[in-house]
Amino acid sequence: MDTQEDASAGRATPAKSPEDGEARGMSPSPKKRSLPESPEESLGKKSKLEDVESPEPSPRFPSPPNVPATSVDKETWQGYCEIESDPAYFSVILREVGIQGIDVQELYMVDPEQLCLLPPVYGLVLLFRHREFDQHKQEGTCPDNVWFANQMPGQNSCATLAMIHTLLNVDDPDIDIGEHMHQFKDFTKDMTPVQRGHTFASWKFVKGIHNSFAKKMDMLENDKYIAAKAAKAEKNKAAGQKKTAETKKTPSVQTKSRSRTARRNSDDSDASNDSVEAFEENAHHYITFVPVDGQVWKLDGMDKQPTLMGEYDEDQGEMWFDAVSGRINTLIGAGDNDYGIFAITQSPLVPLRNQLCEADNTIKRVDGRLDTLSTDWKEFLDEEYREPPSPSFMGSFSEEQRAANPIPDSIKAAIDKDDVPELLVRHSKLVSEMQGLVSDYMEQVQVVSEQDERAEARRWDYGPAIQAWVGMLAENGFLEENIGEFGGT
């Protein structure tokens, strides 16, 4: 379960950052130092991100609070960080897990007509302020054809788990879930949802990718929440076991002092409890709705078992999201406005790749037939339509992908009957078509590249740098002199 007021679900880690453990400019010196003219000046000559040297990983866990989370922190920390509800981050996580052919798109509402315009949709992930619903519809046991796992308490893994719930139930030859996910699914196939949840929670491979977005502050806040929750549980347990009656004797001075101390401790504990309750009241949670064998399931890691939401018949032209869109919209309408909807879809690269492979197979057959009918046939073509896309580009597609997109039999028969003029026209059309497909394909590759860059930037932890900079401003008296401009008194 995730807990941000802005309906977010996870956070970030640094790729590079200073780890000297010293809070620069924060020593209590009465003497003012001159401020640098700009943040860039304070960085000296190394103003570019790539010029900053990576520090040696700290062998200590946790590392000092004034430095970004180190690789040791992230490898040793037992929790899951929160991750902002950004489809770009989710897409990057899935690709780094090894899942190919998938994209995550944000929706504003569940509109079946809109969903029909998207590439194949494999699941709908809902982010909402957590509340239980349709509990009475849960299955007694998890069906054999549905992969479902429970989410372990105290972990912010629901975003990643919701996506894995979707993709481990996908049956599409164009989607490759990768070696790691194949092995995980096979390893957990005979487990109960609870056992799968424990296995997922301890899976370092996925946890490491998820927590690559962790910032030091995220980890500290999560640990603080868990500690407060544990203290609250311990206090409630102690109160329940307390059966002795209050003494009727007049308390001594020492007893009164102890009573005052007890009240102070109680007040501190109540404040901690209030913090925990406020944290949980604002909790947001991810669940997913997925189609499996003509049925639509709600998979919520906080539930004990999957919930059957409806059925559909593909042979009758029914779309699976028709069976659940009304229920999701009703759920959204009855709750708060801070929700998010994400469609896990086929990547646009997949159909473009398939079309390119089929076109390449086709033009090779056309060219082969032209070679048998005329040795100088290329001289009769305009230069821009003589050659298909470069062999190096087309070579990026595997033989298996080419074989999966053969020439339709009707097209193959037509090619074998065409004469030279007809083949030349067919060749020119294919080259033009392939040029357009390559352009579209490269645009989508650029989108993927931008997602990767955005995720890498999000993994950079600026917190310690900001802390040091604010400390310098405070030490130099700048904050005190200009506090009015910041709304202070």
Automatic annotation (TrEMBL):
A single BP term in Gene Ontology: protein deubiquitination
A Pfam family annotated for this UniProt entry: Peptidase_C12
Active site residues per record: C158, H285
Gene Ontology molecular functions: cysteine-type deubiquitinase activity
Site (Transition state stabilizer): Q151
GO cellular component terms attached to this protein's record: cytoplasm
Keywords, ordered alphabetically: Hydrolase, Protease, Thiol protease, Ubl conjugation pathway
InterPro entries: Papain-like_cys_pep_sf, Peptidase_C12_UCH, Peptidase_C12_UCH_sf
Keyword Transit peptide in annotation: no
Biased composition (Pro residues): 56-67
Limits of the UCH catalytic domain: 79-346
Nucleus in keyword set: no
Stretch list, region Disordered: 1-73, 235-275
Protein name: ubiquitinyl hydrolase 1
